Automatic annotation (TrEMBL):
Residues annotated as binding substrate: 111
InterPro entries xref list: AKR, AKR5G, Aldo/ket_reductase_CS, NAD(P)_OxRdtase_dom_sf, NADP_OxRdtase_dom
NADP-dependent oxidoreductase domain span: 22-261
UniProt protein name: Glyoxal reductase
First and last residue of the signal peptide: none
């Protein structure tokens, strides 16, 4: 993890960048287009969107205008909850693919574990993967019991599990489970919407390395073997978030950040959501 171009290898051999740009709540049009273009110019090669975000068209437009070869980029999108089920997921995927204007998607995820639906949804993802129009498939917001339930009836183990992950929600058991089963954990909302920036422990460690609190947290993600996708629509922040490959946290600093855990979620509980 010495370069913004470094990648982890998923269990099917696909190479996924350690750092990506999240575009949740980035407005369709110039806002998301500029964010994606800036990120790619800076060196990001992974962009994470979703049907729910309603900005897939802008993401696709920015990709086309970036001038970077398609095979160098890693594009993720997700099926939303109201489209889960076998046939509806296949249709939802095609809609996303058309909006992104891409021949294939690098990673397609089940956005949330909708009870009674996610197994059929997964069968659709397995078909998309076998058909070669998705390079990797995975899930988002799945707890250990969701993964165990899914894997009991599936032919393919998820390659990625994207979850809320930050110093106040370290999810050590889930991380260990995913690592044991060769499922790559990926962090959404890694910076807690900026709430972590004033944490005294993070601030002190940032001073030690002459880095920003955000850079300390993102580096902590990487050193735990967690892919991270901070969201920003500001060029300076996107640049700052990418500047995390020229230092390494000590074991003591990693442990100090681990100790900040409070099992505190900003987003919904995967075991209790109603959307």
């Amino acid at each position: 993890m010495n370069s913004i171009f470094d990648r982890t290898t998923l269990h099917n051999g696909v190479h996924m960048p350690w750092l990506g740009l999240g575009v949740y709540q980035a407005k369709e049009g110039k806002e998301v287009e500029n964010a994606v273009k800036w990120a790619i110019e800076i060196g990001y090669r992974s962009i994470d969107t979703a049907a729910l975000y309603e900005n897939e068209v802008g993401v696709g437009k920015a990709i086309k205008e970036s001038g970077i070869a398609r095979e160098e980029l890693f594009i993720t999108t997700k099926v939303w909850n109201n489209r889960q089920g076998y046939e509806s997921t296949l249709a939802a995927f095609e809609e996303s693919r058309q909006k992104l204007d891409l021949e294939y998607i690098d990673l397609y995820l089940i956005h949330w574990p909708v009870k009674g639906k996610y197994k059929e949804t997964w069968k659709a993802l397995e078909k998309l993967y076998r058909d070669g129009i998705v390079k990797a498939i995975g899930v988002s917001n799945f707890q250990i019991h969701h993964l165990e339930d899914l894997m009991a009836d599936s032919e393919i183990v998820p390659m990625v599990n994207q979850v809320e992950y930050h110093p106040k929600l370290t999810q050590k058991e889930l991380l260990h489970f995913c690592q044991t089963h060769h499922i790559q954990l990926e962090a959404w909302r890694p910076l807690m919407k900026g709430q972590i920036f004033g944490e005294p422990t993070i601030v002190e460690i940032a001073k030690k390395y002459n880095k920003k609190p955000s850079q300390i947290v993102l580096r902590w993600d990487l050193q735990h073997g967690v892919v991270t996708i901070p969201k920003s629509v500001h060029r300076d922040r996107i640049q700052e978030n990418g500047d995390i490959f020229d230092f390494e946290l000590t074991k003591e600093d990693m442990e100090a950040i681990d100790e900040l855990n409070q099992n505190h979620r900003l987003g919904a509980d995967p075991d209790n959501f109603d959307f």
